Every structure is written in structure tokens, then in C-alpha cells.
Amino acid sequence: MKQLKELYKKWAGAEPANVEKLPGAGSNREYYRFTAADGTTVIGVIGTSRDEDHAFITLAKHFVQRQLPVPEILAVSRDELRYLQTDLGKVSLFDAIKGGREAGGRYNQEEKQLLINTIRELPNIQMRGARGMDWKVCYPQPEFDEEGVLFDLNYFKYCFLKATGLDFHELKLEANFRMLAKDLTSDTCDSFMYRDFQARNIMLDENGNPYFIDFQGGRKGPFYYDIASFLWQASAKYNDELRQELITEYYSSLKNYTEVPSENYFMKRLNLFVLFRTLQVLGAYGFRGYFERKKHFLDSIPPAMHNLRRLIKLGADVFPYPYLMDMLKRLTELPQFAEKPEPVKEREDGYKITDNPVYQANPLDGPATFSKYDGKGPLVVRVWSFSFKKGIPEDPSGNGGGYVFDCRSTHNPGRYEPYKKITGLDEPVIRFLEDDGEILEFLKPVYQLAEHHVERYMQRGFTNLMFCFGCTGGQHRSVYSAQHLAEHIHEKYGIEVEITHREQGVHQILKAKDSSER
After folding, report:
1. Nearest in space to 269 (alpha carbons), one of 197, 191, 184
2. 75: which of 11, 69, 217, 257 fits an S-S bond (Cβ 3.0–4.6 Å)?
């Protein structure tokens, strides 16, 4: 960081007035926003790979010369591990279309226009960006080729397919992989393949115009790859109508830069890359989800499998790889990939959220704040006690958790011999904690926060909420706190509360009361 500041001072002639570290992305690079005394800002970058940084710096300079919408490189350290670039603002396309994405693909007109603006601009960097390009600078390889395709297909095989337990003939599959790789690389394409063309790598100016970042993995290759990568991103949930509209916009824009193939040929080639890209991302989801146990990637598998089902229906005329397609069909039929109804999600501009299909909303319903349950919705509260030494409990509902409270600031009865073999459920421990009083003061604001949250969740028809209490051993303070909050919520609101004292192996369900009992 010191060397990056020195680079800034040398470039700007003064120390920055403020330095803000920006959230990390998928790479190991670190990003900082430097603000000068007059309020102007630039982005400082610390890289870990000289070759990768060299590729980005060189490509950016080339694209700026071609007058393409990319950040300008302002200063570079001698070893190229640190550099400054223009600040393109704080709003990415990913952020700007959040409402439609979280609403299950219900994009409004403003969001659609941002997508159209972006897809129209893609041929500009692909075709004009390729002119005069020194491909040798591209990292880690200069061109999209069969070897790279086979690497990605085998990544899918080893990191996803084998992890599912599906039986398959490895040599037959390998033969079809080679056929697909040959077909994907059969066209000569003098275009820049962005490689990581996604909404997070598009920044928007105040007028909604797109600017491109993070293209250091680009290389010479077919333009179909980037369309497939962008429009079949599993989490985006573009419906068929919107996806076709965006393909049409891209195809029309491409005509301004090069001679285009027929629409039928274009779509046939595009579908090949959609299949390849789908297998590629499943490989990534398998590794990051099955092996690294990262929930976001596990959650991305169902929409990717949905895309795969749609592709399989296109048949042998589009995908002449009989063994591969038969194997993929069997893969989609595995019980763990059975399709379930998508929960309807709320848009931030007013549509109602629920994880229960009973409460599905329609955009024609208009804004809604409260559910039809009028404060008596189907909320289930889960309360846990645990030991921090063994990690925070996972949320079984899939909502990503709720609150985690650390009880270790309070007096610990576990330090005294009479209490070492009993828990926070036992009367001696309860009496110790309450006589001491620290735990009662600790729980006062917790109760206030919990009551407010429970009431709002009930009003809005939400179905899951979780509270976790941790201490050193998960035996005394956390057990007492979890049990008392759970009983308090059940008594006050009459809703179902599940209590789990994880380290004690205790699980209890306080059933919801009838409406007459509430």
C-alpha cells in the first residue's frame, strides 16, 4: 500500500486527501479509491501477477487509442504490480439491475434499456478493439483454441460431473468432448473475446452508458462466447423473450462492424457456445460449491441446470454429440437436480416477497407492504446455541442467516467447578446467571431487536428468521440466552419456534398456537 501511495503522490504531486479500500472481486487484486483535496478521484490497483497486470495495462492503452469506453491508465509502477486508472464511478450494471434479478427476472423498462445499451456496445470492443491488437500480450494465452476448450470441459467432468455420482463412459465422453472442441474452434474469428463479460464488469456513467473493466483475461476468439457468457448467466434469469430481444440488438449492432453470418447460422453457432459455457460454469460451481462449500455457488447450480434442460430440448440437429447429450439428459434427471417451483421474490420498488408459493404476487397487484396474513403469517423462528470454537451454525432455510450474538462478554459459570458438568438449561446455572445480572443486561437490547424483527417479518409474510447465541463452549451462557429468547418469542407471538442447542445435542420445537390462543 505504501508503494501505491508513493505512485499516486508522484503522479498527482501531492498526498491523497482520502484513501478508501474497495470491496474485493473474484481476483486477488486490491482496489483503492484515492480522493484528492479538490474531490477528484482515481482508482489505485495492487496486483499479484505481473503477467496479468501487464496484459490489462497494455490492453487498456490499446483500447483507449481505439477510443473505446474503458478506464485510462494514468501511472504504472516499474514492476507493473501497481497502477492508477481513471475512476468510472460506483455504479455497476450488476447493481443497477439488482431489482429485476432479485425479482426472478422481472426487469423493468429502465433495466432493459441498460441491458440493451450494454449489448449494443459489445461488438464495438470485440471488433474495433481487435484491430491492430498484439495478441501475444494476452494472458494466459493469446487465442481461444481446442486445448483450452478441452481443459474447461474436463474441469466440468472432474469438478462437477464426478461429484454427482452419475455413471458414465469416460472414453465415449472424451470423444464427444473432442468433437465439440473442434466445432467450437472451427471458425476463424479476428475478434477480441472478452472472456469475462458479465454485469459486474460493466460500469455505468450518469447517463447509463456502459464502460468496460476487468478484461485482462481476454484473447483472440469467437464473439459468440461473450454473448453466451452474458445472456445465459444463471443468476440473471433472463426470460426467453428478453434474451431474444438482446440477441437481436447484438446482431444488428454487429452489422456496423463486420460482415455477419445468416441468422440461422449465427444462432446455431451461438447455441454451441451456450452449451460450452453452461458446462464451464457448472465446473466452477462444482469446485466452489461441492469442494469449497460456498453456498452462493451451490445456489447457482439449479438455474444453470434449468438452462441445460432447455438446451437439451434443441436436439441432435443443434448438438450432434449423441453420448454427451444422453449423459447430460441423465444428469438433469438425477433426484438432486429435480426442478422445484421458483419462489417469487419482491422487487425493491414494491412487489411482495415470499418464499411460499401461496403468496405469489403479480406485478399488476401494485405495491404491497403487508401480507394477507395481517400480522399472523407463517413465520418460523430458529434459535441456536453454539460454541464459537466449532463455527457459526448454517441456516437450513437457505436465507443466509439472521443474527449472531456473542455471549462471551458476560460472566462465565463454566469457570467454576460446580457448574462444569451442567448447562444453561439447569436451575443452578440459571440462578447463577440471573443473580449475577450481566446476562440480563446483555439480553435487554437483544429482546427489543428480536421483537421488532419478528413483528415486521410476520406482517410481511416472511417464513424464516434465525437467532444464534455463541459462547466459548456452547454450554452455559449461549444455552441460557437461546432458550430464554425462544420461549419469550413463542409466548409473546404464538408462532412456531425451533430451538437447537448444537453442542448439547438438544433440539426442541415449540409449536405454533391456535389463533384463539394468541
Report:
1. 184
2. 11
